[in-house]
Every structure is written in structure tokens, then in C-alpha cells.
Amino acid sequence: MAENDYALEVNDLTVAYEHEPVLWDIDLDVPSGVIMAIVGPNGAGKTTLIKAILGLIEPAAGQVLIFDQPYNEQRHLVGYVPQRRSVDWDFPTTVEDVVMMGLYGQLGWIKRPTRHHRAITHEALEKVGIVNLADRQISQLSGGQQQRVFLARALVQDAQVYFMDEPFQGVDATTERAIVTLLQELRQQGKTIIVVHHDLQTVTEYFDWVTLLNVRKIASGPVEWTFTAENLRETYGGRVSFLKSQPEMMQPGQEQ
Description:
By secondary structure, this protein is of the alpha/beta class. The chain contains eleven helices and ten strands. It has a six-stranded mixed sheet, with helices on both faces. A four-stranded antiparallel sheet has the order 2-1-4-5. The radius of gyration is 19 Å and the shape is globular.
């Protein structure tokens, strides 16, 4: 893959529910090797955008390319961390089993995991700091531990592009720092990470690329030029208390 290739290209993507557009005519180019936040108000279509890209929702129109090829042909290069609340955490299975599900592409439904597959699984659990919980039932986990399980499951896929839907939602400060460290390590390996994010206060600290979304794309690009007061007001309709408390963070992309 060339260094300047786009990891993700979205062209003319529209999603509608009962003829009401949820996403409208989205064009998006994301270069490889960045950590990108998707930011916008509730109902802006952030989760819908990820699900449409991954083929989990049928778009009304549009095309998605991963490294210049249709998503269906590049599915093996993509990892996905859904929202924690989308999973039945009372299902009777262990942490190790959930993480090993990320190896489905290698295992299929029938093949039994080998010692090698278990080693990969435990290495991922080690990276997210919960290898000691491998045999624990997932119903016994805290919110932060559940999120780490999801991250480990994505890690075993050894993807090139990761999509994460609010990975920081409802986790403790220790887990949040661990997730940020992991994302930075993935970026250093040349991976691309696309994250639905809700906390404006941490965008400039955690991300180097940002897409501002409210049904349509407001702006997308490097944080220092895109995460501006003007773009945020357009995205949130002017109702952003964050702008008053952190004006200095809005300066790089503003015209003098």
C-alpha cells in the first residue's frame, strides 16, 4: 500500500429511515495512519455512518472504498468495536471466548482454536491489561473491563483500519488512558483508527484528524485546521458551551 493512499473513501453516501434522511450525500477521504474522531450532536448520524460504511445498514446511495477497493473485497482489513450497550453482557461466555471471536476469519465456525490462536488471544488481552480475566464470565465485568474485551477482540483481527463506536463512553479514567495509549500504538504501526467521539474537550489531545457531522458533513481534516469555533457552531447550531471555556483551542484554523 502506498504511503499516501486513502484508508477510507466515502462517496455520495446517503442513508434514510422511512424516507427521512439520516445522512445526506457524505463525501469523506481519510488518509492512512491517522486517528480520526467523528464528532457531532445527538442524532447527527455518527453511528449510522460507521454502520453504513461497514454494510450493517443499507444506504440509499453511495460507495465505500477501503484502500481503493470496495469494502466487501477488503473486509478482512477492517476491525470493528461497537458500542458496549449493543451487546447482551449476560450471555454465558468467557472473556477468552469473546476475544477469540475476532479470529472467526481464520477459524470459521467449525475449526477448533489451536495453541497459536490462544496465544494470539492472550497477547491481545495482555495489551489491554486484562489477561488475568481470560476465564471470567463476561457478566461479571465492569464497564471498563467490557470495553477492554472489545478492544482485544478487535486487536486479534490485526486489521489495517479500525472503526470504534464511542470506546470511551462510561469507562474509568484508567481505562480511558489505556485506550488512548493503545490507539497511539496502532497509529505508530501505520493503522488507521476512526472513532465516534462525544467529548469535545479531548479532541485536540486524542486525535490528529476530525470529521464534524450533522446529517451532512460540515468539515473534515487535520484537527488543527478543522476543529474551529466556526465549524463547531455550524455543527452544533451555535449551542456549544465548550467554545466559551476553551477559546484558545479554536485558534489554529480561524482566519485573522
